[in-house]
Every structure is written in structure tokens, then in C-alpha cells.
Amino acid sequence: MSTHQSIRLLLAVTSPFWRAEEWLSQTSRKDWPQSLLALWSLHRAIDRNGFLKVLSPPQRKQLNLNLASFRPKHSGSLSLSKTKTETLFMLESASLRIADFLADSASWNEKRSWLQRWFNSTSFLTLTESILFSDECIDRILGLQERSIQKKLSTKQLPKTYLEESIYLDLDPVDLYTPYRVLCRWSKTLKLQPGTRVLDLGSGVGRIPITLGLLFPKVEFIGIELMRERHAMAEKARKGLGLRNVRLICGNAAKQGLPPAHYYYLFNPFIGDTLRQVFRQLKNRTRHGKLRVAVAQIELPWSYIQKQNWLKPIRRFKADKAWEGIGITVFESL
Ligand SMILES: C[S@@+](CC[C@H](N)C(=O)[O-])C[C@H]1O[C@@H](n2cnc3c(N)ncnc32)[C@H](O)[C@@H]1O
After folding, report:
1. What is the pLDDT of residue 299?
2. Closest residue to atom 9 of ligand 1, CA basis
3. Running along the chain, 334 residues long, what does each successive block of 10 average in pLDDT?
4. Which of 21, 48, 100, 204 has its CA 20 to 30 A from that of 195?
5. Atom of ligand 1 nearest to the CA of 165
6. pLDDT of the residue at 9
7. Helix or strand run (H / E) with residue 221
8. What pLDDT, on the 0 to 100 scale, is given for residue 74?
9. Which residue among 135, 168, 186 is best mutated to probe the pocket of ligand 1, counting the most ligand atoms within 8 A of its Cβ?
10. In testing the pocket of ligand 1, which one of 169, 270, 302 has its CB within 8 Å of the most ligand atoms?
């Protein structure tokens, strides 16, 4: 995008009259996903490169007028750093509104082809590294609304099965789920062969089986998730995207027999007895052949797994700084 186009975009989406629906109806359908990326690029340019400084005085005045209409009256004029904060917030909220519109208006075929293109595009992966809310936009496009689950359950008495496990109902999706870009980059290092089976233990709203299922149509992905609400959302997206290589199971990974797989992935799903029971099952599985356990290096499971003398680390994937230095280590059974 040229500087001129970026400024037009900025002034358009910060306007109090901007509506995602109207704006996208003037854009060709095939460019819809591009509009989201254009907003993210603008967000990054403002955040990192001080893009606001290129605005002429009348453009700056217009931007401030736009922002002022969302502020309480008489809050005075803004410093450049406050203008920046507010502008970034407006762009974030516009992106989420576009994602909601795309969720409702695009067909599952369109969503499937956008995601396949994005997940294979280096520029998408680099851009989303600095745009943390981009994951939430993708979740929303797929109808994976973790926040709405949390809101709904906050007013209800939780079933005993939930209370006994670590289901993290107070965590933001940014901290609860493996980022899409990390999954795309990491999975490419695995060189998964057709017929390989990968199982995500505690699959949440299904980011892993869905993302990898789209990237590797000849590999089989299974997700096991305890919570009905998360499982149901993931299953709806799986069906919509027509992912025949993905199977989602709703159940307790410690209590039901784990299906055989070549890789088992864990991102902080269990602690205590559940973790021990799952590892007992995994160790038993090695009687039938070697297996690999991929672990996001965070908190308890990580220190517990490092102590398993039947597993040796074979590959370490260093994730980007935006994922707080959490990497993924693949262990292989001896
Ligand atoms: C930190 S999230 C990780 C989700 C996903 N693997 C990812 O990386 O995006 C862990 C998930 O494990 C689920 N969970 C907790 N205990 C479980 C159990 N015993 N069996 C199956 N899932 C469980 C939680 O409900 C939560 O959705």
C-alpha cells in the first residue's frame, strides 16, 4: 500500500461513521481478506515506524477529530503518544469488526482458501508476529469464540468434571492457545509424512488440528478436549472447513484410552494426577513402537516431562519473542 492509500485507510476506519459492513461491501469479495491484512500492516507501521508523523497538519487534525468523537467531551487535546495509543486501539477494534463480518458473510469455502493461503505465506506469518490480536481475528472468522464461552460459563455452576481439571477459564485466548503462526512455522520443521497421526492433548477450540489439518491434508490430526463448549465450536469449524483428516473427541484424556499416534502435542493442558495418568498411558503405548511427544516449554508439564527417562529430546523449535520465548521441544521414546 502506498503512503497515500494508508492515510486514506487510517482516516476512513477511525471515522465515527465507519461501518465494517458498508466498507467491505464496496470492496471486491476476493479482496476481503486483504483488507484485514492492510489494517494489520497499518497497525504495525504506526506502532513501530511512527507512521503518524507523516500526516500533514490537516490530516492530523482530521484524525484527532475522528478520535475525539469516541472520547468524553472536554478531555482536551492529545499528545502524539496518546493519539498513537488511541489510533492503535481503533485499528484493533476495526479489525475485530471486519473479522466478525467475515465470519458471518463469507462461505466456508472462502474461509478455507484464505486460511490455506495465509498459513503458507511468509509475509502473513511475519506480520502476525507483531499483531497479537490477529489470532483472535482468525478465531472469530472460524467461529472459535473462547471469550463467549468464558462469559457464558462465568454465570453458571461448573460441572464437577471441569472443576477437577485445569481448564483456565480466566485466561485470555492469547495465553490459552498456541499462536497460529507458531503452529505453521513449527509444523513445517516436522516434515510430516502422509499417514502420520498427530494428537493434541487438550485441544481447546481446535487451533492445532484445524490449522495443521488445513496445511497437511494427507496427515491425520486428532484433538481431545474435555470441555463440551470448546469441543462443539471446534467441531463446527472442522465440519464447515470439510476437514476429513481431522477428528475431534470430547473427553478426559486421562480417563479414556488414548488413540495411537506418532506425535502427541501438549501445551500446558494438565497438572497433577491427570498429567501422570496421561504419561503412564503414553509410556505403555511405547510397547507398540516409538512415539514422539511435543511439548510447549511452559510451567509444570515441561519440568515433569524433562524428568521422564524414557523420553529423549530430539528437536527444539525456538518460537518468536512474541510468544514470550515459549519454544516447542520434541521428545522421542527410547
Ligand atoms: C492451554 S489449553 C491448550 C489448547 C491447545 N492445545 C492449544 O495449544 O492451542 C489446554 C486445554 O486442555 C483442556 N483440558 C484440561 N484438562 C483436560 C483433560 N483432562 N482432558 C482433555 N482436555 C483437557 C482445557 O479445557 C484446555 O482447553
Report:
1. 72
2. 177
3. 92 94 91 94 93 93 89 69 91 96 96 97 94 96 97 93 93 94 95 97 98 98 98 98 98 93 94 93 94 87 87 93 89 96
4. 204
5. 16
6. 94
7. strand 220-225
8. 61
9. 168
10. 270
pLDDT at residue number 76: 63
Of the candidate CATH numbers 3.30.565.10, 1.10.510.40, 3.30.1300.10, 3.40.50.150, the domain formed by 158-333 belongs to 3.40.50.150
Read off the C-alpha cell for 326: 515459549
Residues with CB under 6 A from ligand 1: 165-168, 176-178, 200, 202-204, 207-208, 224-227, 230, 252-254, 267-270, 274
3-state secondary structure of 85: helix
**Ligand 1 atom closest to Cα of 230?**
27
How far, in Å, from the CA of 231 to the mean position of ligand 1?
Answer: 10
Report the SS3 class of residue 325: coil
Strands 328-333 and 292-296: antiparallel
> In the chain, where are the structural domains located?
3-141, 158-333
What pLDDT is stored for residue 232 in this prediction? 98
Name the pTM for this structure.
Answer: 0.94
Q: Which of 118, 109, 159 is nearest to 137 (CA)?
A: 118
Among 192, 193, 259, 201, residue whose Cα is nearest residue 225: 201
Q: Give kind and range of the element (H or E) at residue 332.
A: strand 328-333
201 alpha carbon to ligand 1 midpoint, in Å? 6
